[in-house]
Each structure stands twice: as C-alpha cells, then as structure tokens.
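# step 3/5: fold
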Amino acid sequence: MAATDGDDTMIDRAMRRALEIARRGPRGVNPQVGAVILSPEGDVLAEGWHRGAGTAHAEVDALARLAAEAGPDAARGTTAVVTLEPCNHTGRTGPCSEALIAAGVARVVYAVDDPGDASSGGGERLREAGVEVTRGTREEDGRALLDSWLTVQRLGRPHVTVKWAQSLDGRAAAADGTSQWISGPDARADVHLRRSAADAIVVGTGTLLADDPALTARRPDGSLYAQQPRPVVIGTRAVPQDAAVRRHPRPFMQDEGEDLPDLLERLRELGAHGVFVEGGPTLASSFVREGLADEVLVYIAPTLIGGPSLALGDIGVSSITEQRRVQVASVEHLGDDLLVVGRFDDTAAAHTSITKEEN
C-alpha cells in the first residue's frame, strides 16, 4: 500500500498522540507505551496505554476499549499506531502481535524496535500473518521517551551516574572533613535538577553522618520536584533517628554495599532505570573500580583546599596503562564552577542485555 502525503500526516499525528498518552503510564520495570487505533479513513477509534506490570499492554488496552464501544469486529481493517514494536512473547500477558492479528488489524506502525531477546519479533510475526508493518515513524521521539528503559535493556542494569564536587586540586573536603559548600548555588541547582531525573540516589553512611543530606530533589526556592529519587544508604552504620533522610518523601533503603551488582539488580527489579551516586569518595571509587559507572559528573570549584581528602580514592589503577579513560561529553560553566560530564565507553560491553517484559 503506497503511502500518500495525507496518510503520512495522519500517521504522524497519531504517533505524536501515542507518544503523549504513553507518558500516562508509570516509569518502572516495563516501558511506557501508547497506542492509537485508526479507521481506514484516518479517524481515531480508540487509544490505550500500559498502566504497569501485570496490566494490559497498550495495544490490547486500545483494542479492548474499541471492542467495548463498537463490538468485537470493530478493529478489522484498522491501523494500529504504537510507540514500541508489539511484543511477541507470553509473560503475565499474551503476545500483542497475536492480539492484533486476531482482531483483524490490517496495518501496524511503530516507532522503536523492541530490543528484548524474548519479546522482539512482533513485527516479523505480523508480516507473516499478512499485516502491513511500518517501523521507525518518529523513532527519535520514541527513543527519547524510552531512553532510560532502553539503557536498562542494553546494560542489563540501571544506568549509573557518579557525581562529585571538588576543588581545582582534586579535594572533596577540607582536612577536618567539612565539605559544605565547595560548589556554588548554580552548580547545586544543577545537581538537584539531575536528581529529579533519577530513580534512585545513593550515598555512603560516611557522607550521611558528616553532612546529613536530605537526598531530595529541590528547586532553588526549596520546593520539591514532582519526581523524587528513592534514597539508598550504603554502609553498616546506623542511620540516626533524626537524620534528614528519614523525612524524605520516599522511605530510604539501606544496604551493606558488599555486592554493588546485586544492589543494582534489586534496584532494577524495583523499576529503577537511572541511579545517581552522590558519594562520598569511598563509594564513588567503588562504583568506578567495579566498572559500574557509566557517567561521571565532576563539579569543579575555583578554589584550592589541599590536604588528604581526595575526591576519588582507589579505583583499581596501579599503573598508567590501567587508567580509566572517559569521553568528555560536555564542559559547562555554572556560575563560577565548571561541570565536566564524562562517559565511559567500556561499560556497555561488560554487561549482558535482559529481556523486554516482566509482565
């Protein structure tokens, strides 16, 4: 079927709508997916989105709504516009590819290929059944929507950002242990904005006991961002009853920190896609040393401190040939401070991928 300009506009409009309604679903273990069912004339007949693990997928949700309103055969000859390739496996729910075939859908348009080993192949299954399939419509927008979820699929664990603030001479604190504040207000505002985009924020007990951080994501006026990361405290020392983290909107989780890959796996199972490691130096060094850091955010203040309190400790480098090179993604002025964003290019290959669905 040759596409016309009008057809392209109709499909594009429907895909933009599918991307919009996908965001109604929760971020978590499963992806945010939206679907729109169009009549042969291009009218919107039904919409659906995925509401979380164990619930109907977006395509099935839309088909069910259409059947409830117009009868069991209402989807015959229609076009399904979906943000992610329909799945092709049975988890807690059945394959969306089979549901679309059984409903008599004539055409399926999707934005992003499913990267899962078990769940992919929906497009091929639909073609085998005689359904016309178009992939890659608004793919860039689809990838932007699913960016953090796709990262989890690629790495097999959440994406880990390790952040620290340091002086020009690489110190994270003064000799007496005080560290508030090395960086300025613009840099701190940037940190809070980035916290709001994370699913979990990790800090060591040393930093918690020394600085008593709230671990919330706050606007410059002190109000909380709508999205708050889950606070995670690493270490065996007790968290004081009056610690600020106990007043966090989300209950904190404490872990001994002896098995960081296992911790990341448990956070992934809880739906975490992005983990923000705030330190201190011992914890930051551990994530880097174990090859679990994908990105570093280094806030550099124009000051000299000296002394023993280095921003990073032992990362497993005993000679210059073992140095951990990073790709500098950006350098930004934040008031008087500099933010250097560096990304490792060797972590993706060190971890296997996982399958798309757990529902």
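# step 4/5: annotate
DSSP finds ten helices and 13 strands in the chain.
# step 5/5: archive (pending)
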